[in-house]
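ok trying again, last paste got cut off:
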Amino acid sequence: MLSERGIQVSYESIRLWCNKFGPEYARRLKRKRRGFGDTFFIDEVFIKINGVQHYLWRAVDQDGDVVDVYLQEKRDSKTAKRFFRCLLKSNRGKPWKIITDKMGSYPVAHKELMPEVIHDTSQYANNKAELSHQPTRVRERCKRKFKSMEQGQRFLSAHAEVYNLFNLGRHMLSAENYRMLRSRASVSWINITAA
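nice, full thing came through this time. structure:
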């Protein structure tokens, strides 16, 4: 849009705009969110930052909306508990069911923080969380990796909120409903960015 108006903008300017406005837009989107589903799919994947391996923890609900992302250096039970606390805060309550892989940190955090929630670790049940990492991997390759944990967390949090706004499940909707939901999402985005 800027190019059509004859305005030249560098990638660095766009990066600085994203750093400045991204977290604020993410906060506004979070405030307007109605809530998540009652089933969370939780997974972690490793990401290299400056050659050091870090872990990106991600939770998505049954509709594919990203509940929370959390970038940490470790993958132990202490980190799992911290991530579960973030999940409870983001969701404003406990889910009905969580689905994870068989990593040993999850049962420890589950028993301590939400023992009444059903915990499923069956094979292939967690594929929804595994697939949710794909957009991050694409963005990570485009950006030529993350340079710091702070930058990665800032980008991933903002990206998750914008993704939730425009992730409409097109394959599950008629064209008419999809266009209606897409226009609603666009109006919401305009309202968020105008304020």
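cool. DSSP finds seven helices and five strands in the chain. Residues 11-32 form the longest helix (22 residues).
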